[in-house]
């Protein structure tokens, strides 16, 4: 009986490990990114939002050179992108969006979060909100 209990425990651990691997594979489907990509135009921005998988979260940083906090936020997003590779992190200069007048320096840096082609959340003047 003593040896039987050890074998049962070993079998149980193997079964648990296999179940955990199966669950991990099921949860980690889809594309992996791991980097902060630069969008070059408003068209590319829209295409990224519209053509991405419905289950993928997209975080877009709208920035401009010389605006307080934009460089620091780009660095932070680069680190987050490496850690959360299932999330697509992008950045685009406000002047390249085609709607630069909507993104004046007093609302930058701005973060927009999309999922399934829909805007889920937006953060204007991130440095004022999060210091």
Automatic annotation (TrEMBL):
GO CC terms, sorted: photoreceptor outer segment
Chain ranges of the Phosducin domain: 1-130
Transmembrane segments: none
Any single GO BP term: regulation of G protein-coupled receptor signaling pathway
Pfam families registered for this protein in UniProt: Phosducin
Annotated InterPro entries: Phosducin, Phosducin-like_reg, Phosducin_thioredoxin-like_dom, Thioredoxin-like_sf
Superkingdom of this protein's organism: Eukaryota
PANTHER family per UniProt: PHOSDUCIN, PHOSDUCIN-LIKE PROTEIN
Family to which this protein belongs: Belongs to the phosducin family.
Protein name in the entry: Phosducin
Record organism: Paroedura masobe
Taxonomic placement: Eukaryota, Metazoa, Chordata, Craniata, Vertebrata
């Amino acid at each position: 009986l003593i040896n039987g209990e050890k074998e049962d425990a070993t079998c149980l651990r193997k079964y648990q490990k296999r179940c955990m691997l199966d669950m991990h594979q099921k949860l980690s489907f889809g594309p992996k990114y791991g980097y902060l990509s630069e969008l070059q135009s408003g068209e590319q921005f829209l295409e990224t939002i519209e053509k991405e998988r419905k289950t993928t979260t997209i975080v877009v940083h709208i920035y401009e050179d010389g605006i307080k906090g934009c460089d620091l936020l780009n660095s932070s997003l680069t680190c987050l992108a490496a850690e959360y590779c299932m999330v697509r992190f992008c950045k685009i200069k406000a002047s390249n969006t085609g709607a630069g007048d909507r993104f004046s320096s007093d609302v930058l840096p701005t973060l927009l979060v999309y999922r399934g082609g829909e805007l889920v959340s937006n953060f204007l003047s991130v440095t004022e909100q999060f210091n």
